[in-house]
Each structure stands twice: as structure tokens, then as C-alpha cells.
Design goal:
The chain has helices at 12-24, 35-44, 61-70, 88-97, 109-123, 157-168, 176-184, 193-206, 232-244, and strands at 4-8, 28-32, 49-53, 79-83, 101-104, 131-134, 137-140, 145-148, 151-153, 173-174, 215-218, 222-225. With 245 residues, the protein is of the alpha/beta class. The protein folds into 2 domains: 4-127, Response regulator (Rossmann fold); 131-235, Orthogonal Bundle (Arc Repressor Mutant, subunit A), CATH 1.10.10. The protein has a 5-stranded parallel sheet, with helices on both faces. Strands 6-7-8-9 form a 4-stranded antiparallel sheet, covered by helices on one side. It has a 3-stranded antiparallel sheet with strand order 10-12-11. Strand 6 (131-134) and strand 7 (137-140) form a beta hairpin. Helix 2 (35-44) runs parallel beside helix 3 (61-70) and helix 6 (157-168) crosses helix 8 (193-206).
Length: 245
């Protein structure tokens, strides 16, 4: 099951932005707009990570963080504190209260997502898979190695990130715009057709003779990684017995 994240933020546009981006990364997301509501939610279900605003109605983020650390069930739950207060004294206070990380508004969403992944990896290594497997293909995030049917595949950094992103969400269709945002970054301004070029290079690298292309082109929509793909040899093994009958 994918990690569950609780967002405690009273600014609705920011809460919606965070929810959208976290759910796009595959996380389960709950939200609360008040500190006292979040405390109740934490007693009903313990998340894998909390993103917590400093200034909240009902109960401040600092006080809620303190209560999270006092309670035995949540004392090890990672907490990222969001705040507009960027002074050194405030950062120290937030960290000393028990926050694992501290981000000052306005902030970069990709940076926040990277910090979420890092904290989850540290707190629960099993929650963030380092090895992605689909069909006869393996992608190792730590060693940056890709194998297909035990054959080593050499990819450039962009093709590696593209394959990694597609393999994270098998069967899901991503537009070129979405892939540009997630693989290249939202601050990079390049033509969407660049995605087609790199998908072509990726296909050339991962597909050998008699190997089925796992990357599916969805006309008018984008690209998808087909989690059900098998090689022609594998397909013949599964179809010949039924044909004989």
C-alpha cells in the first residue's frame, strides 16, 4: 500500500496544490484545515508522514507537533513543518519542537516532494521501493541500472528518469505536458515533441529482437507503461498449449 500523508494547512489553494502533487506521485492524502481537527484525525488513523503548517486555527502547528512527539503511537511519525516564518530562531524552535524538516513559504513543490521521499525512505525504507519490476524488466533506483531478461541496458539520464517515472505508475497514461513537468521539471521550457524524441531513444534501448515494446502510445493522450507486456517467446509459451487443445 502506498504511503499515507496528512496535510494540515488552512490555506485552501495551497492544500489543494499539495494534495494534487502528492496524489500524482502515488501517495494517499488526507487533509485538515485546523490543528484540532488534525489531532482527531491522527487518533483515528496514523499517517506515514505529516505536512504541518505553523499557523493554524484551533491548535497551532507548533503545539500539534509537540503533541505528536509526546504520544507514543506517533512519536516516530515524520513531520515537515511549513511556515512563512523564515528567521533562524523560528526554524530552530520548529526543529526543537520535533519537526524533522522545515520549509519556508513560498517553496518549490519538487523540493518538497524530494524531502517527502527522503523522510519516508529514512523512516520506513520498505515504503519507497528501490527496485521497480515489470514483466522481464528491472530498474534499480539506487544503482541506476536497468536490466531486461538479465540483459544490461544502458540509458542516458533523461531516458532513465523517463522510464522510472512510467514504471512507477504502470497502466496510467501521461500526457507529454505531464511528462515534461515530472521528468524535465516545471522550470524547463522545451517543446513537447522533445518527449517523443526521448521516448524513441528509450524504445530503441530497451527493445531487442522479439521483445514486445512495453511503452504504449495512446493517440491524442500520451504514453503509458504496459504492465501486462510479455515477450513473443513468453506469449508463445502461453498460447501454444491452448491452441493444441
Amino acid at each position: 500500500m502506498n504511503p499515507r500523508i496528512l496535510i494540515v494547512e488552512d490555506e485552501e489553494p495551497l492544500a489543494l496544490l499539495l494534495r494534487y502533487n502528492l496524489e500524482s506521485e502515488g501517495y494517499q492524502v488526507d487533509t485538515a484545515a485546523r490543528g484540532d481537527e488534525a489531532e482527531i484525525a491522527l487518533r483515528e488513523q496514523i499517517p506515514d508522514l505529516v505536512i504541518l503548517d505553523w499557523m493554524l486555527p484551533g491548535l497551532s502547528g507548533i503545539e500539534l507537533c509537540r503533541r505528536i512527539r509526546v504520544r507514543a503511537e506517533t512519536q516516530r511519525t515524520p513531520v515537515i513543518m511549513l511556515t512563512a516564518r523564515g528567521e533562524e530562531g523560528d526554524r530552530i524552535r520548529g526543529l526543537e519542537t520535533g519537526a524533522d524538516d522545515y520549509i519556508v513559504k513560498p517553496f518549490s513543490v519538487p523540493e518538497l516532494l524530494a524531502r517527502v521521499r527522503a523522510l519516508l525512505r529514512r523512516a520506513s525504507p520498505g515504503q519507497v521501493a528501490t527496485l521497480l519490476i515489470a514483466g522481464d524488466m528491472e530498474l534499480d533506483r539506487e544503482s541506476h541500472r536497468v536490466r531486461r531478461a538479465k540483459r544490461e541496458i544502458h540509458l542516458g539520464p533523461t531516458e532513465f528518469r523517463l522510464l522510472e517515472y512510467l514504471m512507477q505508475y504502470p497502466g496510467r497514461v501521461f500526457s507529454r505536458e505531464r511528462l515534461l513537468d515530472r521528468v524535465w521539471g516545471s522550470d524547463v521550457y522545451i517543446d513537447e515533441r522533445t518527449v517523443d524524441v526521448h521516448v524513441g531513444r528509450l524504445r530503441k534501448a530497451i527493445n531487442g529482437p522479439r521483445e514486445v515494446d512495453p511503452i504504449r502510445t495512446v493517440r491524442g493522450a500520451g504514453y503509458s507503461f504496459d504492465e501486462t507486456f510479455v515477450s513473443d517467446d513468453q506469449r508463445s509459451l502461453t498460447t501454444e498449449p491452448s491452441a493444441a487443445r
